[in-house]
Design brief:
16% helix, 196 residues, globular, single chain, alpha+beta
Length: 196
């Protein structure tokens, strides 16, 4: 939760975890939900979850993730969320550290204002036998009984969340070294690089 307190032209920023609370002369308050989503790759395969909740995602595939807890960084949140949903730490199989590659700012009827940080990591090519071992180590469902599935980037399911059509190619491009900021507003997406 992050508080922006404004009195006149004074703004005080204090870290309070996953929600941004803005107080303007003590009268108006708005909250921003902070979430993380991660994509784990092995070669051309990516681990996705078939969502049941929230309702607007029901039946669609998305990356693994969830809400950022108070006093938690987004980097800590993706490690925690991925482990909670899969009981697996990709680093145990030689994965690179989680890399932030996109931050989406938006507003929806369900969440109000939100910020979603997208992360990616990959496990080096481990061969077919170790891949089968890994598939056996990761449960077939996450902690919310939502199915987990390895999907080929060459043949993604038709029922993926719309933004995965451009997020997944960005996520598996390790030459991409900066974070892209995306703002969604009334079904319009504007993209701008994180650098000035």
């Amino acid at each position: 939760l992050q508080h922006n307190v404004r009195v006149g032209s004074l703004t005080k920023l204090t870290d309070t975890g996953g929600i941004d609370v803005q107080l303007v002369t003590g009268i108006r308050m708005s909250k921003t939900l902070t979430m993380v989503v991660g994509f784990l790759f092995i070669g051309v395969n990516v681990l996705l979850v078939e969502k049941r909740t929230p309702l607007w995602q029901s039946g669609l595939y998305n990356g693994v993730g969830g809400k950022v807890e108070p006093e938690e960084t987004v980097e800590d949140a993706i490690v925690r969320e991925f482990f909670e949903e899969t009981t697996f730490d990709p680093r145990s199989m030689g994965a690179k550290a989680w890399r932030r590659f996109c931050v989406e700012h938006g507003e929806s009827d369900q969440y109000g204002k939100y910020v979603c940080t997208f992360f990616t990591t990959s496990i080096p090519d481990i061969g077919q036998d170790r891949f089968v071992e890994l598939v056996r180590r990761i449960p077939h469902e996450n902690d919310a009984q939502e199915p987990l599935r390895w999907c080929s980037m060459l043949r993604l399911p038709s029922n993926i969340i719309g933004n995965l059509h451009w997020l997944l190619p960005m996520a598996c491009d390790w030459r991409h070294v900066s974070t892209i900021t995306v703002t969604t507003k009334e079904n319009h997406i504007s993209r701008k690089p994180a650098w000035p």
